[in-house]
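Worked Example 4.2. Consider the chain below.
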Amino acid sequence: MNEDLLIEIEDVLATRRVNLDRLTVGQLLASQRLPETMFQPYLVNGATSTPIPLSTPLADVPEGTDRLLVRAIRNTLFPTVVPADPTGETLDGGSKEKLELGVGFRQIRTDQDGLATEALAIVDREQARRLVIDQVTAFASEYGLANRGCVFGVSGGGDSNALAYGLAAAVPQEKLLAFTLVFDAVFSEKAAERATVLCQDLGIRHQVMRAAEIETLLGITTSLEELYEDFKAAFTHEALHFFGTFLILRTARKLAVQHGLSDLAFGYNREDLLAEALFMLMNGNKPLALPVRPIGSHRVVMPVWQVPKLLLDACHPGFSLENYRERDPFTTRQRSLAFFLAHALDSAYPSFGLSLLKGIATTFDGAWGTLVQDDELDVFVTEQADDDTVASVRNVLARHFA
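Applying the procedure from the previous section yields the following structure tokens:
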């Protein structure tokens, strides 16, 4: 191991230095891909076993202790579930003995003795694009996307970039339209530049829309800046992402009508939809329909709904990293928690999140939560929206739309 290697974990708020010297018992379990709440650590001295917290740093275990015993508290057959050797082998059966460049995915298999083994897949950019194209092509065939045509927003980020590759291969050029919004507070000029390069390479019709064009298309009677300031005053800067979603969805609907296209395609990935569904379920609400969601006279379609976000980012890794480093630090804690939990599912066990998502889609088929169009506001309201929230939205929009 390179003991001088600097390890940093970067997110939208900060960069944290990884300090392995302060590894706790719980973190030790996590390194073995074991859930800490299924274990209790003990300090063992002779015939005496004394429980200690999972938060205990290993460096704090007293000298002279006979051993640190971390005992499972359920009769789970761990060797049949989690491989003893977390380094695993490659999917072609070879051992993984050197660093490989690309995005890695785990797969758990059972050997002839019933014990769990781990196989690894390393995916490069071209392989990732082919996998996404295959997914989108299959979706387009199942849901008639090629005949209906679609509008989609491309942000220059991983999800929509990957979606663009798939749609370019699955939908006729004349039935496909991409758009990118530019508004400094929410959508950056650099993102539009990345999206333009991508769409030119793929031969996709592409519209870049700035404030004046957005105001004209959506019928904003004041200005986009004033609408944003009003929205921020009513719902705080933490709701910035919801403002962006509102603009994108309304723009997509308007462009679809203009160009005679039926569907609105979005790059919602596996973890996006898990986060949304988990949030709805844990608050006692039915999830909204997926992977096709009727919305007025249109459909919101989600061609990459089964694909993990890591694979989408792998289609254009350089653009993806640039996009993340341009992200603002504004969102809600609840939204952060929902995404954290969604990503934790496949982290805990490979493809568990996909199994859960497919189960939700099957269970709620024909019994999804409803979206009702408010003709006055021209927005779609979920059944759990309360009167005060709807009134707040109405007050904001009424000042800026005829």
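DSSP finds 14 helices and 16 strands in the chain. The mean pLDDT is 87. Compare this with Example 4.1 before moving on.
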